[in-house]
Amino acid sequence: MAKIIVLMGAPGAGKGTQARLLQERQGLPQISTGDIFRAMKDAQTPLAEEVRAIMNSGKLVPDEVTIRVVEERTSRDDCKHGYILDGFPRTTVQAAMLENLAVEQGKKILSIVVDVPFEVLEKRMTGRRSCPICGEIYNIYFKPPKNDNVCDLHPDAQLIHRSDDTVEKAKVRLETYAQQTRPLLDYYQKTNRLHRVDGTREPEAIYPDVERVVKSDE
Ligand code: AMP
């Protein structure tokens, strides 16, 4: 049965990096609701305006909007043989919706949490920078680029500091996660679908653990 791989973890835990590696190496599409909303917020529509304001505050986009986006994206052809969800579900309502979607699509849900202590997360978030061309992720504390603020592979491109990666916003996002999303770990645990990987290591050291879970009971 095709799988829906739910990558979970606090903001800054590195779930996006693992999702990208899985996409590259397993050929499954990575669906990041955060990326979809970031692309959407530049449009000149009332919805885009609303999404922009919510994202800038570090809070969550309403469930109805998020659910619609996920339904639309996962109904496309490339998702037929399974897909990776990065940043969804984040609330119990979204988790319930995903159960229905999985039944409709004939897929099974498998959840992986990238575990990182809260103290490490704050530095990871506020230090994060990314290349606007290739999406490569750097960190000014843990993985600085060779030259200040430019991508190693695209020296003409200034790295981007996400507007919600500032210290105050990082705090709100971590609190939002603790209140609304962390309870979902219990939910997947109780239904025997939760797999934990130690996220304090380098991405390449974490990846084999993630891949092992994805390939288990195939
Ligand atoms: P991320 O890149 O996953 O950290 O997401 C960035 C922002 O997009 C979040 O702080 C939320 O405002 C919004 N967002 C992303 N995914 C969701 C979701 N599943 N539900 C609600 N809001 C979301």
Describe it for me?
With 218 residues, the chain is α/β, with parallel strands linked by helices. The chain has one domain (3-117, 173-215): P-loop containing nucleotide triphosphate hydrolases (Rossmann fold), CATH 3.40.50. 47% of the residues lie in helices and 15% in strands. The chain has a five-stranded parallel β-sheet, sandwiched between helices. It has a two-stranded antiparallel ribbon with strand order 5-6. Helix 4 (63-74) runs parallel beside helix 5 and helix 6 packs across helix 7 (167-181). The longest helix has 15 residues, at 167-181. It is globular, with a radius of gyration of 17 Å. The model has no long low-confidence stretch (mean pLDDT 93). The chain binds adenosine monophosphate. Adenosine monophosphate binds next to helix 2 and helix 3.
Topology:
Layout: E1 3-8, H1 15-26, E2 30-32, H2 33-40, H3 46-57, H4 63-74, E3 83-86, H5 92-105, E4 108-115, H6 118-126, E5 128-130, E6 137-139, H7 167-181, H8 183-190, E7 194-198, H9 203-215
Parallel strand pairs: 1-3, 1-4, 2-3, 4-7
Antiparallel strand pairs: 5-6
